[in-house]
Design a protein that fits this description.
261 residues, Rossmann fold, seven-stranded parallel sheet, binds nicotinamide-adenine-dinucleotide, oxidoreductase activity, acting on the CH-OH group of donors, NAD or NADP as acceptor, SDR_fam
Length: 261
């Protein structure tokens, strides 16, 4: 198994894409620490993962430095090391540009961008110390979005935060390259999770999404997990500073998707 005995922290791992990554990593042999603010789902997720391998749930708001410090300490306590971080926790705040509340702007940036930075910095400090002591480098994966480079008019802080996540990926890949620590990102397109539920339940909105999706369907969380498993593995040993878009062909598309003849 490609992640045998690796220890991975996955933020926002109680549901959606984060949980799919946690399940895939455990199946691939990793020990997983799920960090989330939803204790109910987090504990359920831990239980489910323990049926197939090793996992613990830790309450952690990624926007809070003390929570993040506690998260890394809990991972070291539970499994003795940390090899992989997946910065997946993310939220949206849809609002017209002219109406957007400052508090909503701040919260989205705090979770999606500052939270990713705090977790990355905390885990990177551990990994750099380990490399200096003669150990293995480890790797970091940020969950970005196609909205890092595209934009939705009423998703102002979200689009800004994901643009920032792409730059966080590049700048930290450069800063950590001397230690052999790789940092990459995944930019999902439209994936079937709670975050997209209101869009997918509305037939008209769903048709609009599909008209912009050349593969003609929304993605499944396990399809993002598969990319994360690759980036976390030795198979990606020469890949760093990249964002890989798993988006059903959305980014290359101008105009509308072609229907089958
Ligand atoms: N679903 C999509 O179509 C899609 C597309 C592109 C990118 N993404 C990104 O993928 C990631 C996961 O999204 P998802 O669709 O699985 O969403 P989701 O809402 O299903 O899951 C997000 C998880 O993050 C947790 N979370 C929220 N705030 C947190 C915080 N402050 N600290 C810790 N955990 C927190 C939630 O409790 C939840 O378990 C996000 O970064 C999102 O921006 C999703």
């Amino acid at each position: 198994m490609s992640l045998q005995n690796k220890v991975a922290i996955i933020t926002g791992g109680a549901s959606g894409i984060g949980f799919a990554i946690a399940r895939r990593f455990v199946s691939d042999g990793a020990k997983v620490v799920i960090a989330d603010i939803d204790d109910g789902r987090g504990e359920e997720a831990e239980k489910e993962l323990k049926d197939i391998g090793e996992a613990v749930y830790v309450t952690c708001d990624v926007a809070e430095k003390l929570d993040v410090r506690n998260l890394v300490a809990s991972a070291l306590d539970a499994f003795g090391d940390v090899d992989i971080l997946v910065n997946n926790a993310g939220i949206v705040a849809g609002a017209d540009l002219l109406e957007l509340d400052e508090a909503d702007f701040d919260r989205v940036l705090a979770v999606n961008l500052k939270g990713a930075f705090l977790c990355l910095q905390a885990v990177a400090r551990h990994l750099v110390d380990r490399v200096k002591a003669g150990g293995e480098p480890g790797t970091i994966i940020n969950i970005s979005s196609i909205n890092a480079v595209l934009a939705i008019a009423d998703q102002v802080p979200y689009s800004i935060s994901k643009g920032g996540v792409n730059q966080l990926t590049r700048v930290s890949a450069l800063a950590l390259a001397p230690y052999g620590i790789r940092v990459n990102a995944i930019g999902p397109g439209s994936i079937s999770t709670d975050m997209l539920a209101t869009v997918l339940e509305d037939e008209q909105a769903r048709d609009k999404v599909l008209s912009r999706t050349p593969l003609g369907r929304v993605g499944e969380p396990r399809e993002i997990a598969a990319v994360a498993a690759f980036l976390a593995s030795d198979g990606a040993s020469y890949v760093t500073g990249q964002t890989i878009y798993a988006d059903g062909g959305r980014l290359p598309l101008n105009y509308f998707a072609k229907e089958a003849d």
